[in-house]
Amino acid sequence: MPQLFVLTLSLIPWIPAFLCRVTTVDEFAVLEGRSLTVPCHYEPQYASYVKYWCQGRTREFCTSLARTDEPRSANPADDKVSIFDDPVQLLFTVTMNDLKVEASGWYMCGVEIGGVWSADAVAFTNIKVIHGMSVVNSRLSGEEGSSVAVECLYSERYRESEKKWCRSGNRSTCLLTDSEGSYEGASVAIKDDRTGAFTVTLKKLQMGDTGWYWCSAGQQQIAVHVLVTQRPSTTAVSMTSTPIPNESFAQLPPPKHITKESWTSHGHILESLLVCSSLMLLVGLAILARKMWKLHTVADNKASFGNMEGQAEG
Predict the structure, then answer these.
(1) How many helices (H) and strands (E) does the chain have?
(2) pLDDT, position 131
(3) CA distance 24 to 243
(4) Closest CA relative to residue 57, chosen from 102, 123, 130
(5) Residue 74: predicted pLDDT
(6) Is the dihedral of CA 290, 296, 297, 298 positive or negative?
(7) Is 45 helix (H, G, I), strand (E, B) or coil?
(8) Helices (DSSP H) in the chain: which residue ranges?
C-alpha cells in the first residue's frame, strides 16, 4: 500500500505535461540581426494562467527571458524579448529582436501551473541563428512589359558589404550598388535599406529576361529564377509581379509557421476539461488513500497494544 501511494504521487506532476499540452514549432532558422516571432498555443483551461519564455533544455535550468505577469514596455519593438498573451486565440507570442548567432539554442514556451501536485505545461523549440543570405521568393514571374521585385535578405555582418545582382553564368552582367547602397538603370534598379535587405526591381521585362539570377552580399549569394510570360493581346499590361511558390534552392528557408488547432468542437473542450478534472480527482483519491492507510496503521497499533496489556494482566 505505501509503495503504491508513493508511485501515484510521483506520477501525478507529470500527467498534465502529456494530457494538458502547450504546443509550438519544433525548430526555427533565422538570419543573424533579424527578428523572430514564436507562437505558443495552449488549451482553454490555461487562459488565465501566467505564461513565460525562457532559454534552456529543462525547466529547472531555464533562464527566464519574459513573463506575462511582468510590466509591458511602452514600445515592445525596442525590447530584446517581448511576450504577448491572447486568451481569445488561446496562444501567446514571443518576439526576439536583433538576434545574434550566440543566441542559438533551446527555448521553452511555458504555462505556470504552480502548486505541489502539478508540473508546468511546457513546449520546447530549437532556434538556429545563422549568417548568410535568403530571399522572400526564389521564383517570380511577370508579364512581358511589366516589373517584378526581388527582395534579397542578408545577415547583420553584411550590412556594409557591396550588393550585387548578376545573371547566372555571366559575371560580366553583374550590377553593383554605389556608396549609397543603390543602383539605377533603364531595366534594373537596386536599393539597399542597410538594415538587412536590398530590393532588385526588374523593369520593362522582355521574354529574353527569363532565366536564373543571383543576388549577392559580400561572399554570400542566393539564386533566383525569373519567368517572363507573354502578354495577352486582350488584356492590359500588368504592372505587378506574381510570386511562384518558393522552392528550396541553396537558400535559408523562412521560419516555419504553425496553425492553431481547431476548437470549433465543444466536445473537444469538454474532453480537455474532463481530463484535468480527472487529475484533480486522482489527487483527492491519493490523499484519501494515504489517510486511510494511516488510520489502519493506528488501529493495528492500538490492537497490538491492547493484546500486550491483556497478557500482562494475566
Answers:
(1) 3, 20
(2) 85
(3) 28
(4) 123
(5) 74
(6) positive
(7) helix
(8) 2-11, 15-19, 266-313
Regions in the chain scoring below 70 on pLDDT: 1-20, 115-118, 234-284, 286, 298-314
Looking at residue 109, what is its pLDDT? 96
E strand residue ranges, 9-138: 22-23, 27-31, 36-42, 50-55, 63-67, 81-86, 91-96, 105-112, 121-130, 133-135
Grid coordinates given for 188: 534594373
Identity of the amino acid at 198: F
Residue 16 phi, psi (nearest 5): -60, -30
From residue 84, alpha-carbon distances to 99, 211, 282 in Å are 19, 44, 33
Calpha distance 111→50 (Å, rounded): 6
256 contacts: CB under 8 Å, gap ≥ 6: 25, 27, 28
Let me know the angle formed at the C-alpha of 225 by 219 and 227, rounded to the nearest 5 degrees. Answer: 155
Closest CA to 181 of 156, 201, 198, 204: 198
Q: Residue 187 in contact with residue 226, Cβ under 8 Å?
A: no
Q: Between vectors from CA 36 to CA 31 and to CA 39, what angle results, nearest 5°?
A: 145
Neighbouring-strand partners of residue 84: 93
Check if the beta carbon of residue 61 is closer than 8 Å to that of residue 127.
Answer: no
**What pLDDT is recorded for position 248?**
38
- Tell me how far apart the alpha carbons of residues 36 and 61 are, in angstroms, rounded to a whole number: 23
Query: Which tens digit of pLDDT belongs to each residue from 192-251?
Result: 999 899 999 999 999 999 999 999 998 899 999 999 999 887 654 445 555 555 443 344
Given a contact cutoff of 8 angstroms between Cβ atoms, the answer to whether 17 and 28 are in contact is: no
Backbone angles phi, psi at 233, to 5 degrees: -75, -20
Please tell me the distance from the alpha carbon of residue 159 to that of residue 98, in angstroms, as a whole number: 13
Q: What is the DSSP letter of 251?
A: S
Which three cell numbers, joined as nine digits, stand for 14?
Answer: 507529470
How many residues are there in the chain? 314
196 neighbors 110 (Cβ within 8 angstroms): no
